[in-house]
Amino acid sequence: MPYKTGVKLVLLAALLWSLNGLLIRQIHDAGTWAVLFWRSAGMIPVLLAVIWWRSGGVITPLRRVGWSGVVGGIGLVLAFGGAIFAFQATTVANAVFLFSASPFLAALLGWLILRETVRPATWAAIALAGIGMFLMVREGLAAGAMAGNVAALLSALGFASFTIALRWGRLADMLPAVVLGGLFSMLAAGVVLAVEGQTLWAPWRDIAISMAMGAGVLATGMALYTAGSRVIPAAELTLLSMVEVLLAPLWVFLALRETASAGTLAGGAVLMTAVAFNALSGARRRAPAPVAGVPM
């Protein structure tokens, strides 16, 4: 695949993922767990179709991920569920900016669990990102959106756990592990709702939006991103994925006139600077393509 084609595919994936916040804003009655269930139900068939098309089957790729895929899939339950709640409880800008802290959390987990070496430039970027997160979380506390900010950070932590699990298992293909994450998400949602005495059923409009989001935004974006990432260096993938973070607040502003506070914009600018600095400082290093572009 030519490099330019890869760039177009990754940018298209980021464009699709940036619609998540706007689509969740269109869901009025379904709660976090119901949305998680139906979004996963829409995502899984598309991913299985892509896996079958690439591999000629689905059972062998799913078995190949092993325990690392299971651990990563469990991490995705926190990542997906936390992201949905964050979009519902705080501004889209706040949520997506905090999601972008995931690579730094992955670096810290890799250092603690896998004994991976963290570059001095990455430590500096982590410190800078911490300042940006502090500005946004402080703003959220003042605005009464602390729960949404915490959920966004937990979502970033969940995806960082997914990333570390893939590194631990040396898995090059993330799609089978994401399928497991979707299955575990449906199971977790069903259990939580049953314990709370609630039902999975929601207005058909909310179910349709959730399933369309899973199939048309998440799964299709993942297929495009996975294909394009094969010909793009890791640092460039990180920078291209920032398009999702920049576009997501724009869509809700244009459609719903939802604006971000000064604290959110300031903290987000600091955090995105840290992400860009870390990517550019590692541009000359030979590193595997990150999975940090997967959406929440």
Automatic annotation (TrEMBL):
Pfam families xref list: EamA (PF00892)
A GO cellular component annotation in the UniProt record: membrane
Domain EamA: 5-137
Chain ranges passing through the membrane: 33-53, 65-87, 93-114, 121-137, 143-165, 177-195, 207-225, 237-256, 262-280
This protein's record includes keyword Secreted: no
Record InterPro entries: EamA_dom (IPR000620), EmrE-like (IPR037185)
Keywords: Membrane, Transmembrane, Transmembrane helix
The protein's name in its UniProt record: DMT family transporter
Organism: Pseudotabrizicola alkalilacus
